[in-house]
Design goal:
heterodimer; A: mainly alpha; 4 helices; 77% helix; 0% strand; B: mainly alpha; 4 domains; 3-stranded antiparallel beta sheet; two-stranded antiparallel sheet; 26 helices; 3% strand
Chain lengths: 105, 664
């Protein structure tokens, strides 16, 4: 399936919110972000994330977010890595299927 | 070796050495940002909020909600009641109820805290109404709004810290000061948020002031004493009212004081009632009339006796002489009675007399053992007085009205209150300072983004030298004047460097900007032996630089000159504000440019100053208001406006408040 068309479920959205909040709290605690930057980014996230409907929009949103506030990059990396794993898994399945077809008499 | 040092290009005005060297020996200042601690507190609460099972979305919502947090007048009042060692109370009519034995300093704490809270309250009311008006939801009529707005601006401009921060406002007319402070600060919603947040934190601390453990017996005795005193006061009022309802006598309130004195002296109820009766007679009837009434009463009694005697004699064999005498007496008394009753004035006054007698009963009801009417109230007052005496004995038996332990606790609380009052004093100036610092941080952030973009573009063009030059200038702008450490969130102010560099701008104009850039470029030129030697940024003749050095300097100047100039001017104003002892606890040192130096700055950069100011409606309004009053804005004031409202970055950041400044 084309990743562009994968819709975002409410559970996924909740996980993203939780991850981003954790990233923000950690960043402010470590001093990588000021509290006020946290507030500004919180307003940005609340405004955008609810409007994200599919995985493509999610990636664009995270990209935008990470370019504005570096501490959120961790979520972009995580999503990209999951996507990569998913792609790899799809490829392996394809290869296995091809091999199966080849091995059939 | 030949001297290759180029001829120094002299500025138009030569500074006096002392004026510049005054900054030479100063050490950099390190400013601990007070926002760090505050942010840590808020963060701790957010972390707890998340640990308690709330999701990420709720965390973000909570975080953004705090930006709009308000503060009601009820909450402000509840802060006020915490001061004065818990001894003072504000009554509904606005008066203050004070204790019998106040501790030294208690009333002062209560009053000072009250005044400070009033000021904050005025500002918050103004800010709320201002925000509502911005949304077309204002609730006050124009006159009331103007009064509130003026009071809020005046309380801001009268803060000593504000005077230190805005010395340029000096002796300007009060309405200009108001316009100025509103345009630059007061109408910024961030200031309102900061003030409300600080007051919330003070409210929390005030509610956690040390609790005073009271001596239960003493407490009870004081409670009884206070209640009994209240009862005497209310009963007195009730007596006066009842008499007023029954009798046609005015100004009965004047009896109150003596009545209470008699009660407090412990006079028996009958004596008090008798005094009241006498006082009422005195007010309602003249001595002559009173004498006639007394005579009339005696006559009536005598007439009754005569009637009785007459009846008696008619039934017995009595001497005619005696009968005649009784008959004459009867007739004389009857005649006197008729004369009295035929005098309408006397009859009317006799009616008043009788009403007074009825209203002031001197005999108890034999069944209840109580005086009727007001007598009952008088009896209750006497009983309250007895309670006061007993309670006072308990209080006196302990030697002092406040036990030593309680006194110590109250004193301890007063000390804590004093610390909180210091914080209250810092609410407005601290909030102002933080708003300014936020703006400054945003400006720096935008500026750094711009520099990074310029550097990137130079790299794309393959011009490494210019790209490196831009980077070096950018780094210098971030480190040489106010150095902000991203990790520790501390700012280090290099006052000496700021003072020296801004003077260079004042005296040398654009040439000074070029030299500051040259300082960072670290350009070299070959000496007579072909060895590359650094070019002296102070003395180099800019016209004789090599073509390549000239190109680098000109290109870096073209892209960074304006930004560098703005950053230096901004840093100058910010650094000067940071010196306020009440804000940051560092020594106050004179760092202001002299008036003629500010004028020189205007002379060199006047066009960008005027064009910057023309971008902001608020700035234009303030300058226009000044001109309308025939006041030529001094250079310092114009530069200050430029800093707040006129510079390109400031305009972007402050665009949301740029429409204010001269509203109704």
């Amino acid at each position: 399936m084309d990743p562009v068309s994968v819709p975002i479920s409410d559970d996924v959205r909740k996980t993203i919110y939780d991850d981003l909040a954790e990233a923000m709290l950690n960043a402010v605690e470590k001093g990588d972000m000021t509290y006020e930057e946290g507030q500004t980014s919180a307003a940005f996230i609340l405004e955008k994330l609810d409007r994200v409907t599919n995985s493509q929009e999610l990636l664009l949103f995270l990209h935008d977010l990470a370019s504005k506030w570096k501490p959120y990059e961790v979520e972009l990396t995580k999503i990209n890595s999951e996507r990569q794993q998913q792609d790899d898994a799809t490829k392996i399945t394809d290869i296995e299927e091809n091999l199966n077809q080849l091995s059939q008499p | 070796m030949p001297d290759t040092t180029p001829v120094v290009e002299r500025p138009k005005f030569q500074p006096k050495p002392t004026e510049v060297l005054a900054f030479g020996a100063e050490k950099p200042l390190v400013i601990d940002d007070p926002r760090i601690k505050e942010a840590q507190e808020k963060l701790k609460k957010l972390r707890e909020f998340k640990t308690n099972g709330n999701g990420g979305r709720e965390v973000f919502e909570r975080m953004t909600q705090t930006q709009e947090i308000g503060l009601g007048s009820g909450e402000l009042d509840s802060i006020r009641t915490q001061f004065g060692a818990g001894q003072y109370e504000r009554q509904n009519d606005g008066s203050i109820k004070s204790p019998d034995a106040p501790l030294p300093g208690a009333k002062e704490n209560f009053d000072i805290a009250g005044r400070l809270i009033d000021k904050v309250s005025t500002y918050l009311q103004y800010a709320d109404e201002h925000a509502k008006r911005g949304r077309g939801e204002g609730t006050l009529n124009p006159t009331d709004y103007q009064t509130l707005r003026n009071a809020a601006m005046d309380s801001l401009t009268s803060l000593p810290a504000m005077n230190n921060m805005f010395p340029e406002l000096g002796d300007l007319p009060v309405d200009i000061k108001r316009d100025y402070v509103e345009a630059t600060l007061a109408s910024d919603p961030k200031l309102r948020t900061k003030v409300a947040e600080k007051m919330r934190s003070i409210l929390e601390e005030a509610q956690n002031l040390p609790v005073i453990e009271k001596d239960p017996q003493l407490e009870e005795a004081q409670r009884i004493k206070t209640a009994a005193e209240t009862r005497i006061t209310t009963s007195t009022a009730r007596v006066i009212k009842e008499l007023g309802d029954d009798l046609p006598i005015e100004n009965l309130g004047e009896l109150k004081e003596t009545m209470q004195r008699l009660i407090n002296e412990g006079k028996p109820p009958r004596e008090v009632l008798s005094w009241i009766r006498g006082a009422l007679f005195h007010r309602a009837l003249s001595p002559e009339v009173l004498e006639k009434i007394r005579q009339h009463n005696t006559n009536l009694a005598d007439l009754q006796k005569a009637e009785d005697e007459w009846k008696k004699t008619s039934k017995t064999e009595t001497d005619d002489e005696v009968k005649k005498a009784i008959s004459e007496k009867r007739e004389r008394l009857q005649k006197a009675k008729e004369n009295f009753e035929n005098d309408a004035g006397l009859v009317s006054q006799y009616d008043v007399y009788n009403k007074i007698v009825k209203a002031t009963p001197l005999e108890k009801d034999p069944e209840t053992g109580m005086y009727p009417g007001i007598g009952r109230e008088i009896q209750e007052m006497a009983s309250a007085k007895a309670q006061i005496d007993t309670a006072a004995e308990t209080i006196n038996a302990r030697g002092v009205e406040m036990s030593q332990k309680e006194r110590q606790q109250r004193q301890n609380r007063l000390l804590k209150e004093a610390e909180l009052i210091r914080k209250l004093e810092g609410v407005m100036p601290g909030s102002v300072a933080e708003v300014l610092m936020n703006r400054y941080d945003e400006m720096v952030q935008l500026e750094n983004q711009r520099i990074a973009k310029d550097e990137e573009e130079a790299k794309k063009k393959g011009d490494e030298k210019v790209a490196n030059g831009i980077k070096a200038v950018g780094r210098a702008m971030n480190e040489k004047w106010i150095h902000h450490n991203e990790r520790t969130r501390q700012k280090t102010i290099h006052r000496g460097q700021i003072g020296a560099d801004i003077r260079r701008l004042a005296y040398q104009g654009e040439d000074g900007v070029k030299r500051l850039i040259l300082r960072e470029l670290k350009l070299t030129t070959p000496d007579a032996n072909g060895v590359e030697k650094p070019i002296s940024w102070l003395t180099a003749d800019l016209t004789t630089l090599s073509d390549e050095n000239k190109r680098i300097l000109n290109e870096v100047y073209a892209s960074q000159g304006e930004g560098m100039k703005q950053k230096l001017i901004n840093d100058y104003f910010v650094a000067r504000r940071m010196e306020d002892t009440t804000l940051f606890g560092v020594p106050l040192t004179e760092m202001a440019l002299k008036d003629h130096e500010l004028a020189l700055l205007e002379q060199h950069f006047g066009s960008s100053l005027d064009s910057g100011l023309s971008h902001s409606e608020a700035a234009k309004q303030v300058v226009k208001s000044l001109q309308e009053r025939g006041i030529k804005p001094l250079a310092g004031l114009k530069w200050l406006l430029y800093f707040f409202l006129g510079s390109t970055v400031a305009t972007g950041i402050l665009s949301k408040i740029s429409s204010v400044g001269h509203q109704e």
